[in-house]
Structures are given as C-alpha cells and as structure tokens.
Amino acid sequence: MATEGRKFKNFTEWFDELLLNSRIADPRYPVKGFIVYLENGKYVMECVRRKLEEKLEKDGHKPMLFPIVATEENFSKEAEHIKGFRQEVFSITRGEEGSSLILRPTSETIIYPMFSIWIKSYADLPFKVHQSCEIYRYETKATRPLLRVREIPWNEAHTVHESPEDAERQFKTAIRIYSEVLEELGIAFLLLKRPDFDKFAGADYSVAFDTWNPDGKVNQVATVHNLGTNFSRVFEILFERRDGGKEYGWQLCYGMGYSRVLAAIIAHHGDDVGPCFPPEVAPIQVVIVPIPFKGNEEEVINYSREILNKVREKYRVILDDRKDVTPGEKFYHWERMGVPIRLEVGPKEVASQTITLMRRDLRERLTVKIEELEKTINKIIVEMPKIFLAKSRQILGKMIIDSYTLEEAAEAIENKKIVRACWCGNIECADFIKTRVGGEIRGYRYDIHEEPFSNCVSCRKNSRYVIYIARAY
Amino acid sequence: MATEGRKFKNFTEWFDELLLNSRIADPRYPVKGFIVYLENGKYVMECVRRKLEEKLEKDGHKPMLFPIVATEENFSKEAEHIKGFRQEVFSITRGEEGSSLILRPTSETIIYPMFSIWIKSYADLPFKVHQSCEIYRYETKATRPLLRVREIPWNEAHTVHESPEDAERQFKTAIRIYSEVLEELGIAFLLLKRPDFDKFAGADYSVAFDTWNPDGKVNQVATVHNLGTNFSRVFEILFERRDGGKEYGWQLCYGMGYSRVLAAIIAHHGDDVGPCFPPEVAPIQVVIVPIPFKGNEEEVINYSREILNKVREKYRVILDDRKDVTPGEKFYHWERMGVPIRLEVGPKEVASQTITLMRRDLRERLTVKIEELEKTINKIIVEMPKIFLAKSRQILGKMIIDSYTLEEAAEAIENKKIVRACWCGNIECADFIKTRVGGEIRGYRYDIHEEPFSNCVSCRKNSRYVIYIARAY
C-alpha cells in the first residue's frame, strides 16, 4: 500500500518527479519561470477553470477578454499600484508607436480605463466581469513549477458597486465562490486578512486563501481585494447616483491561480505513487484493467468491454487492454496518472458478475455487483472530495502550532509548521518576527474572530491580533 | 422585416456599429490592434473553442499549454520561418537574463524544442497536441476588429508522424475537423491550396479556409500546413524507426482563429438589426417576451414563468419581464443580442395554451402548442445551422465570378466579388495579377480538381491552375 511519506519528507523531490511522471508539467523549458503544462495538468486546470467560471457567471459576472498589454501611461497612474508592481513587469519594445507597453502583471490598469467609458449611471451597477488568462510577473525569487512561475494562469474578476455596503456584500460572495471551488476540490485553507503592509498594491484591504503545502510553506491560491475608490478616482469611474449627483464607483478585484490550485490538488491528495485527482476534474475518472488468465482471455476481455459500454456514457473512462503490459504495471501507471477509481476484472468477476473496484482515496477494494456499479461509482464520486477535504483539514489543523515566544515560533517554522501567535500590530514587531522566526506574518483570520491568547510574541506588550506566520511560495 | 442590405452596402459601418451594440467587442482600447472582447463575443468564441477542442481531443490531440515566449535563439533557427515572421514580432526587454525573448507569433519554435526532448521512438508517434491561446503579430497593415488584430485568439495544433503518408492522413483529418466546425456553424468556405509564394513560412505546403465577407474581402479562418521535415531537422526531432534506424519526424501544424470565426458568424448570419448566433454557440438561445394587456398582466407573467420552467433546464433561456420596456423594444434588444429564438406570450397564447415562436433565421412566426414546445425548439436548433450553411453557400457561389481577362477580374474585385481565373503558375504573372487586378491569388481548390477553362489570365499562355483571386483581411 502506498503511503504519503515522501511528500512530507522531501516535498521538492517528490513534486518535481511527479510533475513529469504524471504528465502534469515539464519545467525544462529554456526560459526561467516558464513551464509547459502537459495534458494532465492542462486538463485539470481547464476543469477548475470551468467550475470557477460557471459559479462566477451564475453570480452575474460577464466573461470578457481584455488585452495583454497596458500602456505605460495607464499603468503608472495609481501610485501605490505602480510602486507594488514596477519591479515585476515585462516590457515590450515593439508596440504602439511612441509609447511603451507592459505585459499585464494583473489587469486593473487595462480594465479600468474601459470601465470609465462604460459605466455612466447607478443603473449600470453592479458591474461584474471576469477573465481567465495568463499574467506575467518577473519574479526575482527562485522560481518553482506551478507554485512560483513568471507566467501565471489565473482568473481575475473586477466589480464596480454603487456603495461600500454593496461592495462589501460582493466581497463576501467572492469569498463564498472561492471557498466552494476549493472545498469541492477537497482543499482546506486558511482565510487570512493580510496585514496592511502586505495588502494588494492599491487596495484598502486584502483577504487571501492560504493553503498548506507538505513542506510547511503556504500556497496562496486566491485573494480578494477591496479597492475602495482608490482606482475609480484615478481612472475616473464616475456614475450618476439615484439622486442625480456624481460619485466614484466602489471597486473590488479578486483572483484565483489555476496552477496553484493544481499544485494544492497534487500536494493534498497525492501519495508516494502520484497524484489522485478529485473525480470532477480527473482527466480519466475510471480505468478498467482486465486480469485474464490463460484460457479465459476472451471472456475477461468481453466482460471488460461490457463494463466499458455500461459506464462510458457517464464517465471519462478508459479500458486498458494492452497485451504486452502486466496488470500490475497498469495499476501503477494509472495511479501515477491520478485516476481515482480502478475497476479490476478477472475470471472470478466474470463468474460472479461482479467487479472489483479500487478507490484511490481510501485505497480500499470493494466487490460490486455489475447492476450496482453505476450507483457505487456515483457514490464514490460524491464522497471522495468530502473525504479529501476532511483529511486536508485534519492535516492543516495539525500543522498549526501555537507559539508564545519567538524561539518556539522559529522552531515550529523550522519543523515545517504554520505558527499561530499573538501580535501587537506594530510594523517593527512584524519585521522582527520575519527576521527572527524565518516566516512572515500572513495575517489574521477573516472568517472568525480569534481572541489573543498571549502578549505580542515579539515585544511582549498587549496584542491585538492572533496572527499566522509561515514561509510562503 | 429586417433585411440584410446594410452589411453588403457598407460592411465596415454595419460591422463596427454592431460590435458595440451587440456586446461583441469594444475597439476603443488605447493600443492599436488590441481590442476588448465583450460578453457576447467572448461567450461565442468560448463555445467555438470547446467545440473545436472536443473534436481535436476525440482525435487524440492532447491539450497542453506552452509558454508565450520563445527565445531569440530558438526563434531564429529555421531560416524560412524567421524570414516570414521577423518583421512581425513583439520583443520583450525584461526576460531571461542575457537573452532576449519574443512573444509568440505562432508556437513552432516554442513547442518543437520540447518535442525533441519527448519524442524518442516510433512508439511515441503519432504525437498530437493542441493549445488555445493568443498570438501576437505586429501587423503593419490597417488593423480591423476581429479580422486583423495584433492579439489573435486561436487554437494551434502540432503533430509529428512516422511517415509522410501518416502525416498526409492527418492532414486530411485536420481538414475534416475544421470543415465540420465551420459547417456546423453555418459558414461556407473555399478550401484553397496556397501558391508556393504564399505558403506558411517553413512549410512544404499550406491549405487555407477562406470564407466570404460581405465587402468581398476573404476572411482566412483556418490553415493547415505540411511542414515535412523542415522543422524536425532544425530542432532535431529524431525518432527510432521500427527497423532501428533514426529518422526525422514528419510534421504538421494547423490553426483556427477564434475571432475570425466569430467575425464570419456575424457577417454570414447577421442582418440589419444585428447578429444571429447559431443556437449551439448563442449566449442566450431563447428569450421569452411577455406581452400583457391591462387586466391580464398576472396570467401572462405566470404563463411566461411556466414556459421558462419548462425550457430552462435544456436551453440557455431568459425571461425578459422588465416592466418599463415595451415588448417591441425587447424584441429589438434581443435581436441585437443575436438570440436565435424568441417566444412571445400574450393573452391569446394563455387562452389557447400555445406560444408564438419567432425563429430569427427565417424570420418566421409559428404558433406552437405548449406540449410541443421542446420538440419544436429542438427541431429549430438542429435545422438552423443547416439553413445558415445553405444560404452561406449560395452567397459564396454568387460571389465567385469567372474572369477571362485582367480587366474583367479587376472589375469583379471592384464589385466586391471573388475572381475565379486561370493561371500559368509563374510568379511574374502572380505579381502582375496582384498589381493589375487589385486582389491577390489565394490559391487553387484543394478539395476538388478544377480543369483550367482558359489560358493564363495574365500572360495568355497555357494555364496550370484554376485560381481564386480576392482581396483579403
């Protein structure tokens, strides 16, 4: 039975091997920070994309596609924003004549000039759009496939509202949508309000979805930002109020990174053999492996085909009837490809009109009557993400260590944990924590209020926040 | 009744107005050749994308995602290719240290270095991948929204084969897949083998799908290229043959432009009011418009809701129950949004338990019994693209004018026609034709053999090809 030891012991080695072996991604592209997404990686990201887009569109977000380039002029307009991103942009030398262009590091400065053309009145609000695209950030830290790349596949949504209250309601809706996506994929996360010094450039405040990684570094998979009127003032997104006056729109933007969600799926549900994809996003959901013995090859193959025909309409299924490969090799191969359900069919199954079903989440073998196969698969498909989520939450819970001193915190970080500690709120202490603990303050809980349980871990004075400290990708 | 006069009389004006009015695209982005795709344009392109990708994946193409950047070194490797694209590339100033990068104008030089890592033996072949992405070409001609842009949303497929025969078989499969996509969208096209001087840079030969545009310019929506071993030699895509020897892979690449297919859908099926989207790709397939009279508002609305509930599971449907807008304004609005089927519900319909159905393709009103509604909608959804295709073919047929002299040809081009003429095959004559006729040689038919019907339209010597001459986007 496969264990999950390796991913916790040596995450980098486990992850890098898996990416190639499981046809997720190939990091051997000759430009730093740019990788090739192979068929399984691309397929899973595409499923996550459709899932997210469906929820966004159901909530009234219109799908759009904005250009990849911002003019230098528009990009430079919002002072905080430009300060936050200036060091990270790729510039294009041949673009519009007489003005230079930058590749989007995020699309505020591309989208909002259009908003100012489109939005005239309260009747146009709320205005909600989304796009799935790639963004470009010239990362100066070490790059890591899926987790820290310079070409980032993501979805970004941008909304404009009539009032701060309406923007706040949408903020909670965005949190709900992202939470649903992650939970339905079995991914546990911490919902953290970022400290002011770490919020999105140009935002009033930011909330992030940080999920655990086996090496203890958190993986930020999504963020939601309240922009207030910071951008609408700069890009003149003015609307006529119900009372006839003019006002700047209240804006949000939020994004989810597809490659980081993919990384979380792999890291949370994978084992020593490879990834196990949640059925909803698995490129292949069910593999049928015939196990013929001499003399009954034909009836085993025929029975396997019968099963294939029974389930092929409803599931993404493959019958692996290769002749020159042993069943054991096939088992291993399809586990590496992340297939969550395996059907094994031998003479015994033919004789009893059953199927041996191996579910990858529990690594359990069941004997299923042929007439109950569909029902059983359906049940597993519904159950599996819930089991994944429960397990993922359990691991996250165990990974969080309460620390009362900087030494304790440093030791926890060293041991690949996430630290929960108390903080006075001063930036000097934040800096001190970062230096001494070796992790950064990721923020305090947005979803629940946590009452400080000690004085500030750094200065020992009264604390205001229960913060989470971790290293991060 | 709406006519289709305007699109033929003044295409540019009709098209530009429609793009904004029908929420297709906004060309007012402040960088030349870059446009914003609005919700309807984006939605239709996304449907076309899924349709094409499904067919490609059914044929064994694996979905992948390759980086947007090529290294200057790889980009420059294939001499013909670099010659063809050099003038069109956008370069990036901040990229990998010590080497410059270009934004993909097409991905051969990005993908093929990876192929050379992945492909080792005949057992790896055929190798087929596809990706949907945007490509970047610094167009020096006048840009036009959807038709000639600098940021081009498309799908590209790349394949490697064991033999030229296998590559040829795949060539025909690619032609079949693209033909199906276009025909299922009701788009007629000419399948033209490009003359040597106009083939893809680095290809042995190219076949293109040219479709008609109301202004007489053809719109190339897709191309299929046989690359022979031109690229595999340069990028060392070598495989071990069945007999143990080594050989360069035989390659194809082919692409379909989503914005150009969208332009064809609009141009072919639109009328004076707006576009009519084929039901399969329509953002909204059915709109329900209540037509209440005083005293029966409630029963009309209730009946409309009943109809909505009847069809909402199967179709993308909207009930327009706005109170401050007249039914006539609603009709006009949803026609502008390209909705192919309208259901009108008034007191008469309530009384007789019927629905008045307006199908946009024939602009016909039918009275449908409520229990036959679903069957009728299904029938129309199946029929509509066929009717579109028949009509589109008829227009294409009428647009093609046989010409025996350069004067006739020039007059036909002037009159927004596509010229069919005979050509000796010499490049001098091609140049002469271009100068004198005002259109370029698009190629000769790939799908059928056409026997020359006169001497060369230019030099009057024996002709080898029946060519099509047109202006092009």
Q: What do these coordinates show?
A:
The structure is a homodimer of 473-residue chains. Chain A is α+β, with helices and mostly antiparallel strands and 473 residues long. Chain A folds into 3 domains: 5-269, Bira Bifunctional Protein, Domain 2 (BirA Bifunctional Protein, domain 2, 2-Layer Sandwich); 284-378, 3-Layer(aba) Sandwich (Rossmann fold), CATH 3.40.50.800; 400-470, Translation Initiation Factor IF3 (2-Layer Sandwich). Chain A is 37% helix and 25% strand. Chain A has 15 helices and 23 strands. In chain A, strands 3-7-8-14-11-10-9-22-23-21-20 form an 11-stranded mixed beta sheet. A 5-stranded mixed beta sheet of chain A has the order 16-15-17-18-19, with helices on both faces. In chain A, helix 10 links the parallel strand 15 and strand 16. In chain A, helix 3 (39-58) crosses helix 9. Chain A is globular and about 85 Å long. The first copy, chain A, starts with a helix and ends with a strand. The mean pLDDT of chain A is 95. At the A-B interface, strand 2, helix 3, strand 3, strand 5 and helix 6 of A face strand 2, helix 3, strand 3, strand 5 and helix 6 of B.
